[in-house]
Amino acid sequence: DYERKLHSNYEHLQDQITRCSTTIEQKRQLQEQIQSNIEQIHSDVEQIQKTILHEKKDINQYQHDLERSTASLTQQEDLVHVLTQHNDEIERIIQERRQQINNLENELIKLDDMLINSFLQPSYNLHSNLSAPQQYNSLPSTTSPLSLSTGTTTDVLMPVRLQFVNSTLWKLCPSGIWV
After folding, report:
1. What average pLDDT score do residues 157-175 get?
2. How many domains does the chain have?
3. DSSP code per residue over 55-82
4. Domain annotation covers residue 163
5. Which of 162, 104, 91 is nearest to 132 (CA)?
6. What is the per-residue pLDDT across 141-153, written as a single tens digit (0 to 9) for each?
7. Which sign, positive or negative, has the C-alpha torsion 11, 15, 16, 17?
8. What is the pTM of this model?
9. Coiled coil located at which positions (predicted)?
């Protein structure tokens, strides 16, 4: 009976030793697996750090490019603003010139009407060229259709309305070049 008990204890202890051995082996395998996982994690961390460093360089480059683009955009916006101002100024000048041209056209139409009326209703006055601008006095006698038969330009018979037209033309265009 004692032997059996001993034998039973021995088997029980043997089972425990076997279980412990198995457990130790499993723990050793788990430890190796954990060690392998740790090494893999270290490798992954190094790779991630390299990737982060590379991405930081890319981000810095992108930031630099963005700053340059922003500066360029600001310059372009400034240029657009300046060009818009110039265009507005040019448009204003064009409008002024158009208004001046319209005013001159209206004056010329009035003068043309007055000239036509003066030819239709002649009322001649003796007019001395001394009151005409200097450029008018310097014209040769052959170019003056209203000069006297003597060929001089000192005294000219000229309709009153034509005198007005002449003086108005001198005011509008002092250079004496009329087309």
Report:
1. 63
2. 1
3. HHHHHHHHHHHHHHHHHHHHHHHHHHHH
4. yes
5. 162
6. 443 344 333 443 4
7. positive
8. 0.39
9. 83-114
